[in-house]
């Protein structure tokens, strides 16, 4: 989930943040996608091709092959909690129960777990609550916002003993439906409402274009008009605590803090951690045999130059490589990459 940005105070905005949001601010929650399966088919669904409608598990950017890797990823970001997402976690309720129990057992009771779902099924919700879930965020399908009373949300929110919220995107052409949903929610046992700035993703362009949406600027994926809707809501007389989370806050604070936490734990001695949490490395496209030769020739200690098995290259400090690149018969670069499991490369600069 995302960072909460503070709207100007008014009658309905309060300082009370959803528990999960406090952890978001520090980037200290792991994002656990327990499945990409979901029946809601929202036109704005931001899930990427590799996740959408696929029964896969991701812990942050890591494609999970065995469930122990989830705990390892949690260790690497020093997770204080987990946000369980999908797809819809209740499509695989038994798996989700198993994950909640595993996380609580390993990281302790204090590890705060929240979950998103659009499935309004009391039995399934009770299963995950009994497993130790701390907070649930309902994402009712958009076609129900006009008449949310016809769903089981009110009953479910009343029955469960944990914090319950509603979390939806701000869709400019659905202002009236959003208002109706929030007015109804006032009469439910709903503790907070989280509103997210609507965003374009690699998969939802077609759906968004149908409604004539555009990005709000060249450097943002956010939809023009979505943030304005948040400010318009200041005039609405709604008593449930509302939090607004902008696209820039999510990327600028939450993601940055999470990758910074991971960078501290995965950086090699020779890596440089940038202020954005990315890693700068010197890389040499020599083979494994040439590693020892280069180390000996330039008297470089083993902990300052190593073999990167995953990418099939030699790595060292960008400062060292800057000094020696001209004297090497291999292609050399300084690369900047994310410290995430997918090690996404941001930039590379050739040195020779
Ligand atoms: S509920 Fe979430 S995962 Fe499912 S289609 Fe809608 S946005 Fe996508």
Textual characterization of the structure:
The protein has eleven helices and 15 strands. The chain is α/β, with parallel strands linked by helices and 352 residues long. The protein has a nine-stranded mixed sheet with strand order 3-2-1-4-5-6-7-8-9. Helix 3 (93-107) runs parallel beside helix 4. The chain is elongated. The chain starts with 18 loop residues before the first helix and ends with a strand. The relative contact order is 0.13. Mean pLDDT is 91; it is low at 1-17. Residues 38, 40-42, 45, 47, 86-88, 118, 139 line the site of iron/sulfur cluster (SF4).
Descriptors:
TIM Barrel; nine-stranded mixed beta sheet; 11 helices; 31% helix; disordered N terminus; binds iron/sulfur cluster
Q: Tell me the radius of gyration.
A: 23 Å
**End-to-end C-alpha gap:** 43 Å
| Number of separate domains | 2
State the CATH topology of the largest domain.
Answer: TIM Barrel
Bound molecules: iron/sulfur cluster
Report the β-strand fraction as a percent range. Answer: 15-25%
Give a topology summary.
Blueprint: H1 19-26, E1 29-33, E2 58-59, E3 62-63, H2 68-76, E4 81-85, H3 93-107, E5 112-117, H4 122-131, E6 135-138, H5 153-159, E7 163-170, H6 175-185, E8 192-197, H7 205-209, H8 226-232, E9 242-245, H9 247-266, E10 272-273, E11 279-284, H10 288-297, E12 305-308, E13 313-316, H11 318-324, E14 332-337, E15 345-350
Parallel strand pairs: 1-4, 4-5, 5-6, 6-7, 7-8, 8-9
Antiparallel strand pairs: 1-2, 2-3, 10-11, 11-13, 11-14, 12-13, 14-15
Helix pairs in contact: 3-4
The protein binds iron/sulfur cluster.
């Amino acid at each position: 989930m995302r960072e909460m940005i503070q709207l100007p105070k008014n009658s309905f905005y309060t300082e009370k943040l959803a528990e999960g949001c406090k952890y978001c601010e520090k980037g200290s929650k792991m994002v656990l996608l327990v499945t990409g399966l979901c029946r809601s088919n929202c036109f704005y669904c931001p899930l990427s091709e590799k996740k959408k409608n696929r029964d896969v598990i991701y812990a942050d950017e890591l494609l999970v092959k065995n469930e122990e890797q989830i705990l390892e990823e949690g260790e690497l970001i020093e997770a204080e909690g987990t946000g369980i997402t999908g797809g819809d976690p209740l499509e695989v309720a038994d798996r989700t129960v198993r994950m909640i129990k595993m996380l609580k057992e390993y990281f302790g009771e204090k590890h705060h777990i929240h979950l998103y779902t659009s499935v309004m099924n009391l039995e399934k919700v009770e299963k995950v609550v009994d497993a130790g879930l701390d907070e649930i965020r309902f994402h009712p399908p958009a076609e129900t916002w006009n008449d949310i009373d016809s769903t089981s949300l009110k009953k479910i929110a009343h029955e469960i003993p944990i914090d319950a919220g509603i979390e939806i995107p701000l869709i400019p052409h659905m202002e009236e439906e959003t208002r109706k949903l929030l007015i109804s929610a006032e009469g439910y046992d709903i503790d907070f409402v989280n509103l997210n700035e609507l965003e374009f993703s690699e998969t939802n362009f077609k759906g968004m274009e149908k409604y004539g949406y555009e990005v709000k600027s060249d450097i943002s994926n956010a939809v023009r008009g979505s943030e304005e809707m948040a400010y318009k809501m200041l005039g609405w007389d709604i008593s449930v605590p509302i939090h607004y989370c902008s696209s820039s806050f999510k990327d600028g604070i939450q993601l940055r803090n999470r990758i910074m936490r991971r960078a501290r734990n995965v950086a090699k001695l020779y890596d440089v951690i940038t202020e954005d949490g990315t890693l700068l490395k010197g890389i040499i496209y020599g083979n494994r045999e040439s590693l020892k030769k280069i180390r000996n020739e330039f008297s470089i200690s083993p902990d300052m130059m190593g073999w990167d098995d995953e990418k099939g290259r030699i790595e060292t400090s960008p400062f060292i490589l800057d000094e020696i690149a001209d004297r090497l018969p291999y292609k050399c670069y300084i690369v900047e990459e994310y410290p995430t499991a997918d090690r996404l490369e941001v930039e590379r600069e050739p040195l020779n």
